[in-house]
Every structure is written in structure tokens, then in C-alpha cells.
User: Fold Vps53 N-terminal domain-containing protein from Echeneis naucrates.
Amino acid sequence: MMEEEEFEFAEDLESILHLTPEVQLAIEQVFPSEDPLDRAEFNAVEYINTLFPTEQSLANIDDVVNKIRLKIRRLDDDIRTVVRGQTNVGQDGRQALEEAQIAIQLLFGKIKDIKDKAEKSEQMVKEITRDIKQLDHAKRHLTTSITTLNHLHMLAGGVDSLEAMTRKRQYGEVANLLQGVVNVLEHFHKYMGIPQIRQLSERVKAAQSELGTQILADFEEAFPSQGSKVAWLDKIDRRYAWIKRQLVDYEEKYGRMFPEEWCMTERIAVEFCHITRVELAKVMRTRAKEIEVKLLLFAIQRTTNFEGLLAKRFTGCTLTDIPGQKRPESPLDPTNPFLEDEPGEDVGTEKDADLPRKPKAPDNPFHGIVSKCFEPHLYVYIESQDKNLGELIDRFVADFRAQGPPKAGTEEGGAVLPSCADLFVYYKKCMVQCSQLSTGEPMIALTTIFQKFLREYAWKILSGNLPKSSSNSGGLTITSLLKEKEGSEVAKFTVDELCLICSILSTAEYCLATTQQLEEKLKEKVDKVLVERINLTGEMDTFST
Assistant:
């Protein structure tokens, strides 16, 4: 009877128990099984067809039924055991819950005790650290007070010593002491509201001011100004000799008083150069009519020599404006005098043998620091060259008339006239002279002079000496020479006249090529901003014609 009741209970339980897919999946994961009876989607018909796939297999139906009944009986036994075992679960669970609650209460009490002890420890630590912080602050303040008092003692004693040494003019000792006092005073900037500190600061400033005034007065007394502004250019050597002596005397007596990085010797020399340039400019403006070429070149030579001496002695670190570098000169064609090396030549005429060699700007940072004042007066040099070139052209004309035209059968016959080469050699010397004196407007003025006498050479030496024919009493021109005439109108020339015509043509060709190279050389020498003003196209056209 009990088995039947349990079987009925199981059937009722199965009829009302419907598990969700999630629960079913969890059961399959916990208790995996390959038995078709354990599947949620069990189909009895498919299961029977699996057991009895054919009619012949029905012969074993009794064995299959017995196996199933045996399995059912075993499941019933398992279910019965589980159901009977659950009768005491409620009482055991309540007892376990009570034990857990008691354990939790004990644990809570222990946690509370630990928390109370932690709070007491934290309070104790705070009290200890508060005392340590107070002691640390006291130590820091005490250290600051001691340091400040030491600085104050040093400052007060240093100010007293500084004032005493200033009165005694002990500049060597003052130099080190003043720097130390200033450094100590920096620590008291935040204490300037205290009257005593402010008073010490004012005493230091007063001592600095007094030192500056006193040192300047001592230097003015040590460097007498008498003789530093000599009157005229012929005495210019005295200016430079005077500053040389003064610089030597300064370095011996006062050189060690100033830091080496101040470059005091160079600063004195630069200031002298500025004053000299201004004074020379004033003197030359006042006595401009007395300036002669030889005197001007002498003054420029001595001045540029002095600038070169400064470049050897000093670095130029105190200068604010250093002239820019000129671009390097390019080589020229070897058919003209402008190819030859210039630095080693003796430029100028015999009377200009002492021409100054002005150091190039990139090599000398002091270039022009004094000699710049001579540029406004270089017109004297330009006018001199105008006069010299005029005399040279007149000499060429006189020599041509005296010597006569080149003769046929001689080396000179049909060759370039010697005067042409002489003219361009002189041009080159003038150009080098002027570029050493200035690369500005004086070079433009010299170019104008060159243009003038190139045209005069073309007219007076070349066109003016073409032979005259019987049919052209007005003189022969290249155009009329090249015209083809018929009969008796054909121009007749002697062999010597034909030789002269060939010489003039050769000379004109040489002048054309050399004038072009002269223009290129002038553009190299002049300042870049003035290059566009160098143009010898008109003169080249004259020789071409």
C-alpha cells in the first residue's frame, strides 16, 4: 500500500512540476546524463520505436518490460530514501541557523573591540605627531632665526667695513666685500618693512653710489684729457700714439681692478675711436679746403693701420655693429689686367706709394670705426683721379702724334695700341685704391670718371686717328670704310693706312671686351645696394660701333 501511495504521489508531483529552461540547463550541467529518459523533451513513442524498431524485435518485449520495471523499482527506492531523509532536515537547519547567529554575535563583538582599540591607537598617534610637529616647527623657526641673525650680523659689519674702505679708497678689498654685502642683503628683501633693515639697505645703496662717483673721479684724474684732441690730419699719429701709451699705463695700474670679462681695455679703446671719429669729422668739415690728396691718404693709412692694430689686440666683443662680409671675388678672363692678384700689387702712382691698405671687413671687426669719417672727403681723391686721367689721355694723344701710326711690316703694325693697355692698368689701380678707401658712393663717382675717359679714348685716340681719304675730307669712319663703292669712288689707302685701321679695330675690340670685365669687377667691389648703378653699356656700345 505504501508503494502505491508513493507512486501516486510521484505521478501527482510530476504532473504539477514544470521546470524552467534555465533550471533544466543547470541540472544537465550538474548531473550530465546520456539516458533519453532524463531529457526534458522525452517522447515515449520515439523511445518505444527505438527499443522495438522491427516486428521481430517484439519477441523480446518481456525482457525489455522486466528491465524497465526493475529500473522503476530502483528509482522508487531512491525517491523513497530521499523523501524519508528530508523529514529531519528542518530541525537540523534551525539548529545550524541558531549556531550561525551565535557565531555572528561573537564575531561582531570582537570586531567592535578591535575598532575601539584602533580608535584609541589613532588618537594616541595624533597626539604624538602633534607634539612632533610642534617640535619640528620650533626647530625650523629657531634655525631660521639663527641664520637671519647671522646674516644680520654679517650685513651690519659688512656695511660698516664697506663705508670705511670707501673712504680709504681701498678698491681691491671693496670689490669682494661689496659683492658679499649685496648677496647677504638679498636675504632681507621680505624684511624691508623693518626700519633697521631698511636703513642698512639705504646705506648700501649710498655706498654704491659714492663708489661709482669716486671711481669715475679717480679715473678722470688718472687719464688727463689734455692732448687727446690734436688739431689737424698731419698730427694724426699723435692721437694713436697717445691712446697706445694710455692703454699700456691703464693695464699696468688698473687692469686687475676689473673682472676680465668686462673687457675694460677694449671698451676704452672703442670709446676713444668714437670720440676720434667725431672730432676728425668736425675738424675736416671746418678745414675742408685745406685737405689735399697726399694728406688725406696719409691720414687714412695711419687710421687703417691703427684699426688693424686693434683687431690684433682685441676680439671686438664690445662692438654692437660689425660690418658685413663682402662676397668673394670671382676669377676673370686672362686677357686683361683685372685678372692679376690685387693684394700683393703696388697700387697707385708713385706719389701715392704710401696708399693705405684697408683691412677687409670680415677680417677686422674694427673696420671703419674711425676711418668712416674720411668717406665724405674722398671727393678730393676722385677729383685728383679725374685730373690724372685727363693728363693721361692728353699724353696718349701727344705720344701718338709724336711717334706716328704703326708702320706696316713692324711688330706694332695691326696690333692693339699700347696706350689701351696702359689705360686699363691705370683703371685697375684706381679701382683698387678706391675700394680700399670706400665701397660706397665714392666708387660710383669713380665709375663716372671711368665712363668719361673711356668715351674720350674712343673719340680722341681711335675715331680721331682714322685716316682720311680723298673722297672723305671730313675723316674716315668705320661705316664709310665698309661701304662698297664703284669706279673712282672706291677709297684708296696706303699699306700704312690699312695697318693703322686694323690697329684701331683691334684696339676697339680689346676695349669692348675689357670694358665689360671692368664693369663686372666694379660690381664686385661696390656695396650690394649700389650694384645697379654700375652700368658701362653706353661705353661698350661706343667701342662696338
Notes: Residues 321-362, 484-489 have pLDDT under 50 and may be disordered. Residues 89-168 form the longest helix (80 residues). The CA atoms of residues 232 and 283 lie 7 Å apart.
